[in-house]
Structures are given as structure tokens and as C-alpha cells.
Design brief:
Structural class: alpha/beta
Distance between the termini: 32 Å
Oligomer: single chain
Radius of gyration: 16 Å
Helix content: 40-55%
Largest sheet: 8 strands, parallel, barrel
Shape: globular
Length: about 220
């Protein structure tokens, strides 16, 4: 595979299938509900799952996403992404460096990177990343990030200055995802608002519609 055959990150909600949220439900079941709602990109984040179980789950989720025409990215774990045949990885600012992820993955898979501002986005581009996650846009309790909340105004400034597509991360919910889209974001990462919804599949449909409506003026 080469750069021209690398998949493109779909615009819209970016759903996370996390083993720390709704932990009693198997990852594959959570992924199936997200995809059934129309998720076009899913990030599998497994911080607590033992290695063998993580690989088995990754292979199942990748296959599920492929059947649905959705992309599946692995959080941090380049090894699992390769073994499971995932579409790429997302690495945080304390994870494997993006240039190392690109070297291991080759040119045919996506690499996303968490950054905190425009300079970080430029560095990510130079390291071979395809998109950046920027945040926290809003306060969040799902993951402790140790970084100040940006707010929509600062987030929009980063979007305008970024050389890569930007996915807003941190505290994104149904009521504010349209505002993230209106700020110019390519995507918006959602974790607990989807996985803790009474009906996960229906919530994904609502998130898709809200993001599209918020980005109408782009």
C-alpha cells in the first residue's frame, strides 16, 4: 500500500469504544452498537484489557467495522493495529511518537496524534500524521489529560491554523457536538455520551445528525 491508497478519515463524529466505559459490556458488543448507529470511524481504546484478550477483541472489531464500511483505529497500540489489520492508530502526546508509528505502519494506514495547539499540529504533520485530535475542548471526566480546557474560541483558532484535519476531543456530547462542527472541526470524538446512552445505536444517529447540522455553514 502507498499514500494514495491510504484511507481518508471520514468527517463527522469519531466514536471511541473504550474498555473503561460500560466495562461490563464486551468491547465487540459496544462496537456493534456504535457501528449499527452509522459510525464511520471507531477508535478502539483498551487500557485495561489483557494483551491476548485485546488482540482477540481488536480482530473482531476490525472485521465488524470492515463489514460495515467503517474505519477502525487502535488507540496507541501499533502492534495490535498491525496484527489485527486495523486502518491505523491514534497516539497520545505521551504514547509512541508519531514518526515511529508511521515507520512501523508504513504509508498505507492512518496515523492520528493528540496535540494541544497549532505548533503541535505542524509537528504532527512533519512526523507523518494524517490528522490531529485537539483538546480538551470542554471539561471531561472520561480521561484525565492534565491540560487546560481550550474552549470553543481557542479551539476554532487551532482549527484555522492547523495544516491537518482536526478532531475535537474532550467533553463532546450531543448538546455541544454541533458547536464543535461549527468551529470548523473535521470530526468530534465522543466516548461516554454514546456508550452511556440508554440506546447507544440511536445516540450515534443523533450525534451524526447534530454534527452535520452544526457544520452546514462550513
Amino acid at each position: 500500500m502507498n499514500v494514495s491508497s491510504r484511507p481518508m478519515l471520514p468527517r463527522g463524529p469519531y466514536l471511541l469504544c473504550d474498555d473503561t466505559v460500560l466495562p461490563d459490556v464486551p468491547l465487540v458488543d459496544k462496537a456493534a452498537r456504535l457501528v449499527a448507529g452509522g459510525a464511520r470511524v471507531l477508535q478502539l481504546r483498551m487500557k485495561r484489557t489483557p494483551p491476548r484478550a485485546a488482540l482477540a477483541a481488536a480482530r473482531e472489531v476490525v472485521a465488524l467495522c470492515r463489514r460495515a464500511g467503517a474505519l477502525c483505529l487502535l488507540n496507541d497500540r501499533v502492534d495490535l493495529a498491525l496484527l489485527a489489520g486495523a486502518d491505523g492508530v491514534h497516539v497520545g502526546d505521551e504514547d509512541l511518537p508519531p514518526e515511529a508509528a508511521r515507520e512501523l505502519l508504513g504509508p498505507g494506514r492512518l496515523v492520528g496524534v493528540t496535540v494541544r495547539g497549532v505548533e503541535g499540529a505542524r509537528a504532527a504533520r512533519d512526523a507523518g500524521a494524517d490528522y490531529v485530535g485537539v483538546g480538551p475542548v470542554f471539561a471531561t471526566m472520561t480521561k484525565q489529560v492534565g491540560a487546560p480546557v481550550l474552549g470553543l474560541e481557542t479551539f476554532a483558532e487551532v482549527v484555522r491554523g492547523s495544516p491537518l484535519p482536526v478532531v475535537g476531543i474532550g467533553g463532546v456530547k450531543l448538546w455541544n457536538i454541533g458547536r464543535v462542527a461549527a468551529a470548523g472541526a473535521h470530526g468530534a470524538a465522543v466516548v461516554s455520551d454514546a456508550l452511556l446512552a440508554k440506546d447507544i445505536t440511536e445516540r450515534v444517529r443523533q450525534l451524526l445528525a447534530a454534527f452535520e447540522q452544526g457544520g452546514v455553514g462550513d
